[in-house]
Amino acid sequence: MEKRQQLYAGKAKSVYETDDPDRLVMLFRNDTSAFDGKKKAQLDRKGMVNNKFNAFIMEKLAAAAIATHFERLLCAQESLVKRLQMIPVECVVRNIAAGSLCRRLGVEEGLDLTPPTFEFFLKDDALGDPMINDYHIRAFGWAGAAQVEKMKELTFAVNDVLKPLFLAGDMLLVDYKLEFGLHRGELLLGDEFTPDGCRLWDRETREKLDKDRFRQDLGDVVESYELVGRRLGLNFD
Ligand code: TMP
Ligand code: ASP
Q1: 93 and 75 in one domain?
Q2: Number of domain units in the chain
Q3: How far apart are the C-alpha atoms of 78 and 74, rounded to whole Å?
Q4: N or C: which end of the chain has fewer CB within 10 A?
């Protein structure tokens, strides 16, 4: 497999073509950003930690029969993935109230959500990732009705796999964001699952162990990501 020209550079990852038209290299950079790119920093080791963390989670999901784009780790900061035609929406499930839900609805952070909630957001930094619903997705042609249903089903299926996984490491999966795409007509989980795109709290103390440490200037951002990984049995050395 030969890495070729850069196809796309996002806020924390870059994507490269390869000699196989169906495969891409995903490079996890040390860049971090929040608030739709308004707050930025470079964090040592973050690319490597997130690449290995993502590989671990994607393999757990694949083992639970959730189809993902992930193929294999290539090196410290790179993974090989299937090429997807991305659907420009973000799927968010919440088990506990935090972040924008608290701001929008005026509820207290930490409230248990039963059943867990589901939200779609449009992936568009210039618009501030506005919340949208099924009808917008269909009316603007971002995805069809069957794909919308499948995205919801798969996003909840991920909860069933990851909530107990994190709980076994004494962590609460508060919420998370997933992105999907199409590969030869099949809907696959794409992008990443790392502490950049979810909220994880210590089960006892409710200490924040995810990107809220960066958003809220709590410090020890990458150290916390590594702690989460170690509690799941990962080794970053
Ligand atoms: P929110 O509380 O800001 O709406 O975010 C909910 C969860 O989804 C949180 O874990 C962060 C993640 N998320 C992203 O990673 N990127 C995004 O663009 C959005 C809207 C949410
Ligand atoms: N939508 C936000 C961003 O893209 C999510 C965050 O605050 O991390 O930066």
Answers
A1: no
A2: 2
A3: 5
A4: C
User: Cβ < 6 Å from ligand 2: which residues?
Assistant: 33-37, 129, 211, 215
Judgement on whether residues 192 and 131 belong to the same structural domain of the protein = yes
Give the closest residue (by CA) to ligand 1 atom 14.
197
Which residue type, as a one-letter code, is found at position 139? A
If pLDDT is split at 50, 70 and 90, which confidence band does 121 have? very high
What are the two backbone dihedrals, phi and then psi, of residue 59, each rounded to the nearest 5 degrees? -70, -35
Residue nearest to atom 21 of ligand 1 (CA): 177
Model confidence, pTM: 0.97
The mean pLDDT of 41-55, rounded to a whole number, is 98
Using the atom order of ligand 2, give the atom closest to the CA of residue 38: 9
Q: Count CB-CB contacts under 10 A for residue 154.
A: 19
Ligand that lies nearest to the alpha carbon of residue 210, given by its number in the listed order: 1
Of the pLDDT bands very low, low, confident and very high (cuts 50, 70, 90), residue 25 is very high
User: Do both 91 and 180 map to the same domain?
Assistant: yes
How would you class 34 by CB atoms within 10 Å of its CB: exposed for 0-12, middle for 13-18, buried for 19 or more? middle
Judge whether 49 and 36 are in contact, CB under 8 Å.
no
| β-sheet with 70-75: strand ranges across | 3-9, 13-18, 23-28, 78-82, 70-75
